């Protein structure tokens, strides 16, 4: 009974919580040049109760060390088939997770990772395509998302 009370008190006090957490999306389409790694403009917060996502530099900085689940989903606005496009989750500028997709009409790609972060590490989302020119990515807030949360360990 005492252990149950300790756990309940910890949850109520916030000592055990999946925070910080955030979700960001886009406010419109984004032009992405051919064969160039480009940061996705996740400039709109859906939620960010701990103020750890910065819309000015499109970065999540945890502010609390621990293990984090980080994920992102992107979609092009390209309505024909071509080679491929990719999504990259970068930590402090280095790719730590990526996914590629052969592109078919208005295709999407998703990447995720569980990562150990310090309080001042930062995460960003990049994309790359080989369509042959500058192309728009979707402005649909359901298709363009960047999100994460601290894991309870």
- What is the first-to-last residue Cα distance? 22 Å
Helix content: under 10%
Which radius of gyration do the C-alpha atoms yield?
Answer: 17 Å
Instruction: Characterize the main sheet.
Output: 5 strands, antiparallel
Which structural class best describes the helix and strand composition?
A: mainly beta
Total number of helices: 1
Q: Tell me what portion of residues adopts beta-strand conformation.
A: over 45%
pLDDT < 50 runs, ≥5 residues = none
Overall 3D form: elongated
What's the arrangement of strands in the largest beta sheet? 4-1-13-7-10
Number of strands: 13
**What integer is the average pLDDT?**
89
User: What is the H/E order?
Assistant: HEEEEEEEEEEEEE
